[in-house]
Specification:
The structure holds two protein chains of two kinds. In chain A, helix 2 crosses helix 7. Chain A contains 33 helices and four strands. In chain A, the strands form two sheets. A two-stranded parallel sheet of chain A has the order 1-4. The longest helix of chain A has 34 residues. By secondary structure, chain A is mostly helical. Chain B is mostly helical. Chain B is built from 15 helices and three strands. A three-stranded mixed beta sheet of chain B has the order 1-2-3, with helices on one face. The N and C termini of chain B lie far apart (76 Å). Classes of the chains: A mainly alpha, B mainly alpha. At the A-B interface, helix 10, helix 14, helix 15, helix 23 and helix 25 of A face helix 1, helix 2, helix 3, helix 5 and helix 13 of B.
């Protein structure tokens, strides 16, 4: 058995220790993303995009960064020279690095799956992003794994090959897309006009990635051998006299006005020149991204070259984030800042010197964007029908500044270029998404957004001295945590405070009402729903051809009496079976009853007309009485409507001479019973509330809460945004119940109810409609003579609008007057 | 040989610093200009709203509702609703069957045997109490109109033209019915005179138009207030305008409302397209509106509404003229025993040349066809565009004015300059 030699063991130890910070960082990042995702609406588009990205975050970022950590960082710190001086063959050094990287990658995939499972447990039940073969598909899973290996090999190749780590990371982006582009080219050449899903193309993608892995591993190995080979000395072309070079005087002497000046202009000059190529590349990407951003405002253009434009936009956004990274890691090593610290340069000056480049480029880009979008939106180049639109200069600039701010903070906090280059875009995009979600869902005020952008900039300024001294310790991470916490909490803080302080009914009152509600027994008999009568047009609906005779024969079978229109089962006025309301049938019946009234009006002495209206009055008296037996709140509202109609009918002079008939007597007994009306309402309000409170144990949206039955509950509190509405719903319903109970107490004692009706209007109708125009106003409350059931029907959104309205007094008076008459 | 160390001159450094600071300064100044511009627009919007308030115009849906509050006595309102409910019962009872006979019952002259006639007679009998109530109290709900329309159909079919005209007076002008009825020789000369009186009766479209614009403006201003108060959830589209609508966007809409009269005066589809085109090309471009530089959603919504209203108003005017011209042609035929050779001849039956104009100087299309046995009236464009194939009788009028005229750049430019 081969034993690992001590130097090799030491090398493994070193490599593993180099990778551990990256692993910890990625695990923390995934945890933050999972936390953020759990706090978001997972059904939203943004939520689903994040859900798709989370499982790939850890392995893909590890694959992209590990090369830069294991090779690039060693190049920067010159420990590579130490490695090559060890008694180990270069091939073994390369092998060790590859082994550590691949094992780390496999571990990242395992972590990702474990994290996914964990998030599935803590997240909403609908979470479906856990990377299982079920949702990503086995072919896709294989492709993503192979692609991460490919990126790892490519990362090693670029860092071995290029001297500058930042440049090697930038170069990695186009290389990483090669398998995808190759596959697209393959399909373009072999198929046309057919949509190819990722699932379908996963096989070809996997093969091209596999070939890519072989090529990249080979190229990487070659570049590594070259990098680890002895360096040839500079040949200045003097041949055999080369040994004299070291003793020669330099051809020119550095002449500087003030070699140790550190004015802002010097620092800016240095910031530009320490990595000009990368800065130039970022600048170009920014301009391309900006122009693509303008182009995406046109649907027309988006359709033509959408893929290219979107890629350009992503490149631009990435460039903004990397500008932030460039601020502190642009020169590849934080240690260089120490040079400035050692020479007494003020941290503020150094901070400004680092930030001005990025801020200036963002300002330039924003100006370019404003000009381009102004020209583009007004030009004939775009079809106005496509409704071109674009972010304003302020919104665009602010978005860029937010990405930049978070990225520069990340880069100062992490300090390692290879890690921050990949972590910063993820964190900054996540932060901007969080701000967007906060604005759209919980109305985050503008000042919180401004603070969220300013805080990371302030943090890097405050930590600049420590950063320049290169004294990383727990204070850095504590400040990092504080900034992250503020970014997370600030935008939602005003909403949370508002919701927290939302008025609720006193707990004593709530407990007291609940005790009473729990005592309410279930109805002795099973409630029955109002159903259709014997009339039906089903047989006619399916007929294309119909003769006059057939039509008339069908009409003759239709009955205008209650039996034909609706069925309520037991028609005995003494029935104890509660009735439940059906909106459609109930109103069909009332319309037929109104028709009977018009018939009576046209011929008041016709006995048949009197009998027919009598049947309707009797039926609605039974309906009203049985609806009062129901424990559903809404049925009490329906009973009110039936009683309002009965009151109007029995107050009509048309029936003056028929009030001694049985149907009138029965109906007057029902509608004049104020005690039953009061008791039934109170019982139904409390029983419905009790059932609603029980249903709250199962979290669901307002639409799913059907305890209130046909009340237009989806319109309740709809003037609040969904998140707020959801947060205050239970307390608002409690408030509604407490107010209606008080309403019943005030009304039944004969006091004026206007004050409580105003409160109910404000609670249930919202701030947009004045009380005078709302359903709780006197104008819209039924009198004995003015019956407007259609109006009440439309305004069931406001419960109890007709309670203690004049019709109730009119109903009671009918009985009193009748008694006097007798 | 050691290479020379190059250090920049102080001047060069200063140039670099200036180049870096320049975009920052320019961006700051541009944003400041944007804010100042919005502040100026805001003042202008406030001024306009204050003027509207002083003029007593409603500026939100509450003031609109209060302005239009029903003044009818409660008992009368309740009675009209009860009649409407009873009518609904009758309609739902008969509607399935009446729908099945719709083709044969629609504008059927007495000469044509009609399926469903017995059904219509039964319906009329059942509806008589309702008809009386509606006639007595002059109710105008859609259900009431349905009953009166069936009464009219039956009267026309039975040749009872005075009753049909009586119903038409209560229903209001039903241009399609009148136009189609002219295909048959049912109306007498006296009937045609009465029909011309009904159609030509002075209506008050200006008041309706102004009311509509006033309502649209009030709703728009209320919408702006709701967005500014960040309570937009009730009106949907919550992701838009989280920080309110920029005054520049509001002002651009207010100006469009201001120009509604010009838009209405032109009115055609061309003008409508031109208005939308103007909106797209010259809508306010704000530097600091959040999030969008232009508010296409709100601007577009209102523009389409305004353009639709203008087009509708124009169409109504044209339809009225077309019916009057058709009635005059029919009168001429009854009077002279032949079709008029051209529209100019209609002066004989009391029309003036402005009565048969579409808009501007263009006349309705008119031609005597089939060797003098038939005549064709159309509203513009070409005859072919109107596809008058379904008119098989002696007099043909297309159902709708054509709007297929194609837009070209010069037309748009011309109309834009007219509107602005």
């Amino acid at each position: 058995m081969n034993r690992i030699s001590p130097p090799l063991r030491g090398l493994y130890w070193k490599e593993i220790h180099q990778v551990i910070p990256l692993v910890l960082m990625l695990v923390s990042l995934s945890a933050v993303l999972v936390l953020m995702w759990s706090a978001m609406d997972v059904t939203s588009q943004l939520g689903s995009i994040i859900a798709d990205c989370i499982p790939l975050t850890m392995p893909s970022l590890f694959a992209a960064g590990v090369g830069a950590i294991l090779v690039g960082q060693e190049k920067e710190t010159r420990t590579m020279l130490w490695c090559s001086s060890l008694p180990i063959a270069p091939s073994q050094i390369i092998q060790v690095k590859y082994v550590v990287a691949v094992v780390g990658l496999i571990m990242m995939w395992l972590f990702s799956i474990i994290f996914g499972g964990f998030a599935g447990i803590i997240g909403p039940a609908s979470s479906s992003w856990v990377p299982t073969p079920g949702n990503l598909g086995p072919a896709n899973m294989l492709y993503w794994f192979l692609h991460s290996v490919f990126v790892l090999c490519a990362g090693f190749y670029t860092t071995w090959k290029l001297k500058n780590v930042f440049a090697s990371l930038v170069a990695l982006i186009p290389i990483a897309s090669v398998p995808y582009l190759t596959t697209q080219l393959f399909y373009t050449l072999t198929t046309s006009g057919r949509y190819i899903s990722l699932e379908e193309s996963a096989g070809v993608l996997s093969v091209s990635t596999l070939v890519g892995i072989i090529i990249m591993a080979f190229l990487g190995y070659r570049a590594a051998i070259k990098a680890l080979s002895p360096v040839e000395s500079d040949d200045d072309g003097v041949g055999s006299l080369k040994w004299l070079s070291a003793w020669r005087p330099v051809t020119s002497v550095p002449i500087a006005d003030s070699p140790f000046r550190f004015s802002l202009s010097s620092l800016v000059w240095q910031s530009i020149h320490h990595n000009r190529i990368v800065l130039l590349l970022l600048f170009v990407a920014l301009i391309v991204g900006t122009l693509c951003g303008v182009l995406t405002s046109s649907v027309q253009i988006d359709r033509l070259v959408g893929g290219v434009v979107r890629s350009g936009l992503v490149a631009g956004l990435l460039a903004v984030s990397w500008l932030g990274v460039f601020a502190f890691n642009g020169d590849g090593s934080a240690a260089r800042m120490r040079f400035l610290a050692d020479r007494g340069v003020s941290p503020t000056l150094a901070w400004l010197g680092r930030q001005l480049i990025g801020l200036s480029m963002i300002a330039f880009t924003t100006l370019l964007y404003a000009l381009a979008s102004y020209w583009f939106l007004g030009s004939d180049f775009v079809d106005p029908d496509t409704n071109p639109n674009a972010l304003s200069m302020l919104a665009f600039g602010f978005a860029l500044l937010a990405i930049y701010s978070v990225s520069q903070w990340t880069s100062q906090l992490i300090g390692i270029l290879a890690a921050s280059a990949f972590v910063a875009p993820v964190i900054s995009f996540a932060a901007v998404s969080w701000l967007l979600v906060s604005v759209s869902r919980v109305d985050a005020p503008w000042w919180t957004l401004v603070l969220c952008v300013a805080i990371p900039l302030f943090a890097t300024w405050a930590m600049m001295r420590r950063y320049m001294d290169n004294s990383a310790n727990w204070r850095n991470w504590a400040s990092g945590l504080a900034v992250a916490g503020l970014l997370f909490a600030l935008p939602v803080a005003p909403f949370t405070i508002e919701v927290w302080n939302w008025p609720a009914i006193p707990s004593e009152l709530r407990a007291e009402l609940m005790v009473e509600a729990l005592r309410i027994p279930a109805p002795a008999n099973t409630p029955q729903m109002i159903g259709w009568g014997t009339n039906s047009s089903d047989d006619l609906d399916n007929r294309d051809e119909l003769s006059d005779t057939e039509a008339l024969a069908w009409l003759d079978k239709q009955i205008d009496s209650p039996k034909g229109i609706l069925s309520i089962g037991d028609t005995d006025i003494e029935s104890r079976i509660p009735l439940e309301f059906d909106r459609h049938v109930f109103w069909m019946g009332l319309e037929a009853a109104e028709y009977s009234r018009v018939m009576l009006e046209s011929n008041p002495n016709d006995a048949e007309n009197v009998e027919r209206i009598g049947e309707w009055i009797n039926t609605y008296a039974v309906i009203a009485k049985r609806l009062r037996l129901s424990n559903r709140w809404f049925d009490q509202e329906a009973a009110d409507t039936a009683e309002i109609w009965l009151t109007a009918m029995l107050s009509d002079p048309l029936l003056k001479n028929h009030l001694d008939r049985d149907f009138a007597r029965v109906a007057i007994d029902v509608i004049s019973d104020q005690t039953t009306r009061n008791e039934s309402r109170r019982r139904a309000v409390l029983a419905t509330w009790r059932d609603d409170v029980a249903a709250r144990a199962t979290p669901q949206d307002i639409e799913g809460r059907n305890i209130f039955g046909p009340f237009a509950m989806d319109r309740w509190f709809e003037w609040y945004k969904p998140a707020k509405r959801k947060a205050i719903l239970d307390r608002s319903i409690d408030m509604l119940v407490a107010k209606t109970i008080r309403y019943l107490e005030v009304g039944s004692s004969g006091e004026d109810t206007e004050e409580i009706r105003r409160e109910l209007h404000s609670l249930m109708i919202g701030p947009f409609e004045p009380f005078e125009l709302g359903p709780y106003a006197d104008t819209f409350r039924a009198t004995g003579a003015a019956n407007d059931p259609n109006y009440y029907h439309q305004n069931f959104a406001g419960p109890g609008t007709q309670w203690y309205a004049p019709w109730e007094a009119a109903a009671v008076n009918l009985k009193t007057n009748k008694a006097i008459g007798e | 040989m050691a290479s020379a160390i190059k250090t920049p001159s102080r001047r060069r450094e200063t140039v670099y610093l200036s180049l870096v600071l320049l975009p920052l300064a320019l961006a700051t100044i541009t944003l400041l200009v944007g804010f100042v511009r919005e502040a100026i627009y805001s003042a202008q919007v406030n001024q306009i709203v204050a003027k509207l308030k002083i003029a007593g115009e409603p500026v939100d849906s509450t003031s609109l509702a209060l302005a239009n509050k029903l003044t009818l006595p409660a008992a009368e309102v309740a009675e009209s609703i009860r009649i409407a409910n009873a009518a609904e019962h009758l309609k739902s009872r008969y509607s399935t069957m009446l729908r099945k006979f719709q083709g044969s019952l629609e504008v059927a002259p007495p000469s044509l045997a009609s399926d469903g006639e017995e059904l219509l007679i039964r319906y009329s009998k059942d509806a008589q109490p309702m008809v009386e109530a509606i006639e007595d109290k002059n109710f105008a709900s859609s259900n009431a109109l349905y009953i009166l329309e069936r009464e009219r159909d039956l009267a026309y079919h039975q040749g009872d033209t005075p009753r049909a005209i009586e119903m038409l007076k209560k229903i209001g002008t039903d241009e399609e019915f009148i136009l189609k009825s002219l295909e048959f020789d049912v109306w007498t000369a006296e009937d045609l005179n009465q029909l011309r009186e009904i159609v030509g009766a002075p209506s008050d479209p200006d008041t309706a138009w102004r009311k509509s614009i006033s309502k649209g403006l009030a709703q728009f201003l209320e919408f702006v207030d709701l967005v500014d108060a960040n309570v937009i959830a009730r009106r949907g589209n919550e992701l838009m305008h989280p920080f309110g609508i920029a005054p520049s966007h509001v002002l651009s809409q207010l100006l469009l409302f201001h120009e509604a009269e010009q838009l209405r005066a032109i009115g055609t589809r061309n003008a409508r397209n031109a208005a939308e085109s103007i909106e797209c090309n010259s809508a306010a471009f704000s530097l600091v509106a959040v999030p969008m530089a232009r508010s296409n959603w709100i601007n577009g919504y209102r523009t389409v509404w305004l353009a639709n209203s203008a087009e509708y108003a124009w169409k109504s005017r044209m339809t009225k003229r077309r019916v009057l011209t058709a009635l005059a042609i029919k009168q001429f035929k009854l009077q002279e025993g032949r079709w008029p050779e051209s529209l100019d001849k209609l002066t004989k039956v009391g029309l003036t040349s402005s009565d048969w104009k579409i808009s501007g100087d263009q006349d309705f299309g008119y031609r005597v066809i089939e060797d003098g046995n038939a005549a064709l009236l159309w509203t513009g464009g070409t005859e072919e565009l109107e596809s008058p194939k379904w008119f098989e009788k002696s007099f043909r009028t297309p159902s709708q004015p054509p709007f297929q005229w194609m837009l070209n750049a010069s037309t748009i430019a011309e109309l834009q300059s007219t509107i602005r």
